[in-house]
Amino acid sequence: MHYKSLKKAKSSITTFCIAIIIITAISAQADDKKWATTIYGAVQADNDFDGIFFKPQFDGNYKLIVVALSRKIGSLTEHLQFELEGQAGKHFGDQSHMEFNGLIIARWLTFPWNKHLKTSFAVGEGLSLATEIPKFEALQHEKTNQLLDYLLVETALSLPQTPQWSLVWRIHHRSGVYGLFNGVYGASNAMGVGLRYSF
What we know:
Elements: H1 3-28, E1 35-45, H2 51-54, E2 58-76, E3 80-93, E4 98-108, E5 118-130, H3 135-140, E6 147-158, E7 165-175, E8 188-198
Antiparallel strand pairs: 1-2, 1-8, 2-3, 3-4, 4-5, 5-6, 6-7, 7-8
């Protein structure tokens, strides 16, 4: 990645993060009880995005741990909730870089069994910035990039007695979006589990 491209990428991610902070700060004035923090560990998979759902093939040499802070910013009826989330991730094993992600999340809240097991399903979309070219992506594809698209798929489960605590299952996906990001096709997928505390 050339210096000018890296500088432009860092500028874009900085602008995106500032926008998230401003929107979050404005919305926080209306209600200060809609925050959540999530921590999860994940393992990289050799599969493409479709394959990780059905026959994931994990590579234990590439792991990461992610800490995230999210904020509800709105809703559409009682069924759908919208959130902003910022993430900081640390990779372990055969790669050791940091990863920073900012995204918007849409979360479906209503399931018929919620009285027994509170469930939500979420999809998030945003940007991902790695502090260096990820070795895993470089081995998997001819080309990758520090700045890529970020996609999140999540299921969260909590008991009605303790709704503030949730067990989360996440797919953590970086992508070039069919060449949109610096000509990158494909990137990396990881699957993980963790805990969320809402406050």
